[in-house]
Amino acid sequence: MKNLNELFEHQLKDLYSAEKQLIEALPKMKSNANDSKLKEAFGSHLEETKGQKKRLEEICKELDIDPNGEKCKAMEGLIKEAEGFIDEAEDDDVMDAGLIAEAQRVEHYEISGYGTAVRYAKELGHDDIAEKLQETLDEEYDADQVLDDLAEGRLNKEAKS
Ligand code: FE
Ligand code: FE
Ligand code: FE
Ligand code: ZN
Predict the structure, then answer these.
(1) pLDDT band, residue 153 (cuts 50/70/90)
(2) What's the gap in Å between 99 CA and the centre of ligand 4?
């Protein structure tokens, strides 16, 4: 990589890999959630995530690059951690609280990735692409907020007993 443009392309591919891995992982998180609102949150973010993958495909098409070819090792690790947790949780409320914790790590990782990508797109003069990436960034913030609200609302308290 020798310039911001190449770094930007690398970031897009990394995000693309991350979203693809999440599309595989979110159904397992949803099926292990016990609270109906948490299940719903995972389900709707899964649909959103499919749209985010599509956005990245559109962006890469516009830039004439292949979105494939990069593996996001951080997302791979976050998902492995979530799967490990699922195997260890022995109580329904603890499962839900822990799923939220794992999912928020994922959202925060995405927020930082998309935040960087939006900034690079702007610096490179791709205003339309920056807008598209910002749409996804907003969705990631919203997903994180929904999880915050669920955790604060009651799921953590229920996991205490
Ligand atoms: Fe995403
Ligand atoms: Fe990554
Ligand atoms: Fe997300
Ligand atoms: Zn947060």
Answers:
(1) confident
(2) 14
Distance between CA atoms of 82 and 121, rounded to whole angstroms?
A: 31
- How far is the CA of 153 from the CAs of 136, 142, 157, in angstroms? 25, 16, 8
Q: Exposure of 74 by Cβ count < 10 A (0-12 exposed, 13-18 middle, 19+ buried)?
A: middle
How many whole angstroms from 5 Cα to the centroid of ligand 4?
Answer: 29
The mean pLDDT value of the chain amounts to 96
> Whole-model pTM?
0.94
Tokens of 58: 């559109």
Closest ligand (CA of 113) = 2
Q: What domains appear along the chain, each with residue ranges and CATH number?
A: 4-160 (1.20.1260.10)
